[in-house]
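== Folding task for one protein ==

=== Format: two labelled lines per protein ===

==== Paired sequence and structure tokens ====
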Amino acid sequence: MFSILKKEFNSYLNSLIAYIVISVFLVGIGMFMWVFPNSNVLDYGFADMSTLFNMSPYVFLFLIPAITMRSFAEEKKAGTLELLFTQPITDFQIILGKYFASLLLVLFALLPTLLYYYSVYQLGSPKGNIDSAGVFGSYIGLIMLAAVFTAIGIFASAVTENQIVAFIVAIFLCFIIFTGFSSLSTLAFWGQSADLINSFGIEYHYQSLSKGLIDSRDMAYFFSIVATMTISTQLVLGSRKW
């Protein structure tokens, strides 16, 4: 698994993908936090990082599928997938190697945002007047969100050999599982079941973590989605082997 992880991560670093992803994420979020009116910290007047954590999921909707779309689709198109399966490693190790390589790249993009936290911390009046527990919980939520989106992206890449199709499918699935259930729960006919429907979506659990409360039920939800998508990827790849 680690050999696959190293190979995949190095391939990202040797291409423009890693640098484009990190640059787009940091510049985009930075513009919302520090430049654009009605969302930047300086105009908002409060020492918090809600802009980062509110906008990042929607940026991830596009950036993570852009990272994962080539994982298996490129191997299929190049005809190297069969060769990969002949290596003395299991299908599951191959999937995990590609999965963690993509996730590691996303985490590298998140790492520089700690400078935003330091800046807001220093700008607080008095200095340090920021809900650090909430920030920590929100970072945990972002990491888990990235983990789920990456698993979905890897699955989407496994079902097709076209990278563009994999990109579109991943965006669609990520969007549905993130906001679909919360939107569905607003329909009047659900009645008292609305909260249950809402709890099936990522947004519900992400917002819970953003409050700074690390609930085992929220963590179990994220891990279960990652496990489900990983097993689904293994089933898809297993059915295509010949």
